[in-house]
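My current task is to audit a protein record that another person submitted. My question to you is simply how this chain folds and whether the tokens agree. This is what I was given:
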Amino acid sequence: MSGPAPETPPKGLDEFGEIDRLFRPLTRGAPGAFELRDDAAVIPQRPGFDLVVTKDAIVEGVHFPEGEAPELVARKLVRVNVSDLAAKAAEPFAAFLAVAWPQGFAGRDRELFAMGLAADLEAFGIDLLGGDTVSTSGPFTCTLTAMGWVPAGRMVRRAGARPGDKLLVSGTIGDATLGLAAVKGQIEDADGRLAYRYRMPEPRVDLRETLRRHATAAADVSDGLVADARHIAEASGVGLLIDLDRLPLSGAAATWLERQADVGASLLRLGTGGDDYEVVCTMASGVRKPPGFTVIGEVREGEGVEVRAAGRVVDPGAGGWRHG
């Protein structure tokens, strides 16, 4: 890890002292990290496996609220990247970190960030192999490049869906959308569960073997269920039917939906809101539905995505978040 020193390093430490204290322990002794004392790392080989690599950045005010607790930012950074690996049926093993500390970001803030990072790297079995730290006059920005192993030729791609396949999604959808609204004070969230779902997504690493055995295509639900299902359709060269009346909802989301005057528009909001970090995938029609999944549609010949809600066809627009 290298780069210009942060504006306000911990007392008595320059950038390299900060790396030594905050980040070197996160290598967990990985030999290819060289204790973060070099300008590069060596990635070990694993015969019979492919290396899957993903990279996501999160920016204050865009992907997390301004003033968010640094440890929560770090944990969300890890989790959104692990979610990409999970949808590819890959086993996480290592990562590279880049952080742009904003001006005025105190030494204790960086310590809290490192603590949150350590907690989730440990939880998901990930070694830190290197990265970079810089200062910025802009918003707090951090990026993780995450890597995982998958048996050779077994990564589950977006391409691969076939006409006649079922469209399924794991877990529940819409909690993160409502959680963001709760964080903004727009809806009630008495027990904090919705806000927690937004702040601390749970990447579906538990689905790895199921996806390897049964999925013909898959993506994680980050931009919005409709948008990410559309990514599968476009990559596979097929059409999709998505029935939002079959959307799996948590108790909190179902209660919220019952209070809405326009059910169709509200279902569309839940299905396009993003940040759920579940897995949307396709499976052959003859495959028995695995536990934890809900069938929400089907793959069709042709192209385009038809979305239904409240018993009628609706226009989903972009279907979710679009990056500028």
